[in-house]
Amino acid sequence: MPSRDATDPVLTPEDQRLVAALQYDGRLTAEAAGEALGISPRRVLRRWKALLGDGTVRVVLPVAPDPSAAPALGAQFLRIRVLRGKLDTITAALAARDDIPFIDVTTSGDEILAVAWTRPGAPDPLVFRQLPSTQAVTSVDAATVLHVFRLASQWRHDVLTVAERGAVTPPSSPARGELDATDRAILAALADDARLPAAAVSSRTGCPQSTVRRRLASLTAEGRLATQVVVDPRRLGLTVDANVLLRVPPDFLTAAGRALAEHSAVHGAFATSGPSNLHAAVWLRDLAALYAFLAEDLTGLGVTHVETAIVSRAVKRPGGRSGSGGAPLR
Predict the structure, then answer these.
(1) What distance in Å separates the CA atoms of residue 131 and residue 137, rounded to the nearest whole number?
(2) Which of 159, 237, 238, 306 has the greatest number of C-beta atoms within 10 Å?
(3) Is 51 helix (H, G, I), strand (E, B) or coil?
(4) What is the predicted pLDDT for the residue at 210?
(5) Residue 306 in contact with residue 109, Cβ under 8 Å?
(6) CA nearest neighbour of 150 among 63, 274, 263
(7) What distance, in Å, lies between the first and last C-alpha atoms of the chain?
(8) DSSP at 194
């Protein structure tokens, strides 16, 4: 997540709509956005240049483990409690690891929530050896992700009309088959900036511009160029960032997960192992909206237990620039 001050103002309604349009198509042109949203293309280009130029918004490819390194990699949610005064030391060490894409600190002041890439069923060294042997860590709980209902890259800021959403969503077409070396090279070139012009992608990959443009069009239509807009939710007026851990009976699990995935506040929904078998990550306007989510929106989903952890600080998120430095875990 870009490093922004908590006092940065909420973006204007127009800017929020422009950010939302990029969520539907990270390579959307100013002309297409202007036509869909009723804003002049020149103004769209000017506002995007400002938002992207100062780091308020980044358009990247979603983070994922390297399949060539470990084809069976999955994910674990970690809840790590540490001694007060040692929080920054542990978060810095975790942020330096490539296998930890998410790190949050909760309002309790001594708890870290993290996501780790891991091999399902294997005794992960981080969980079984490194963290428990670190004197600053008092406890570690790990839950394996069993099923994904919604990823952060699939979340959309709910500020566009149905017609506008349709107008900025790329048309779809059947997939051509497996990605080849050219496709993979193009996607790699776009990893940190998915809006790179075709000329820049051509320069990075050595492919002709005509090939790059053709492949980009195909990858987008096939849903393989799924971009993610990285923006501090506070700039969108969403001041509450929380993780909601739920317990539901097995016969409610799929329906509850799907319902959460459709909720406009939920940017992550997962079935997991452990006492809480359903995990929802939410961005909401304020604490009153969080209360309404818990008291009203969860009704009818079969929930038997709820635990809410409010995030006070997002240390590392995909697309952010944190993660360098830090002492190793011992």
Answers:
(1) 6
(2) 238
(3) helix
(4) 96
(5) no
(6) 263
(7) 27
(8) T
CA distance 290 to 111: 20
SS3 318: coil
What does the CA dihedral 314, 319, 321, 323 come to, rounded to 10 degrees?
70
Compute and round to an integer the Cα radius of gyration of the chain.
Answer: 20
Give per-residue pLDDT as tens, 223-258: 888 899 999 999 999 999 999 999 999 999 999 999
pLDDT-derived band of residue 127, with 50, 70 and 90 as boundaries?
Answer: low
**Burial class, 13, CB count within 10 angstroms (exposed 0-12 / middle 13-18 / buried 19+):** exposed
Residue 86 and residue 88: Cα distance in Å, rounded?
Answer: 6
Dist. CA 32–CA 171, nearest whole Å:
13
Longest dimension (CA), the chain: 59
pTM of the predicted structure, to 2 decimals: 0.85
Q: What type of residue is 143?
A: A
Rounded CA separation 149/127 (Å) = 25
Q: Options 3.40.718.10, 3.30.70.1060, 3.40.50.1110, 3.30.70.3460; which CATH number does 74-150+238-316 get?
A: 3.30.70.3460
- Cβ atoms of 329 and 131 closer than 8 Å: yes
Boundaries of every domain in the chain: 13-62+155-231, 74-150+238-316
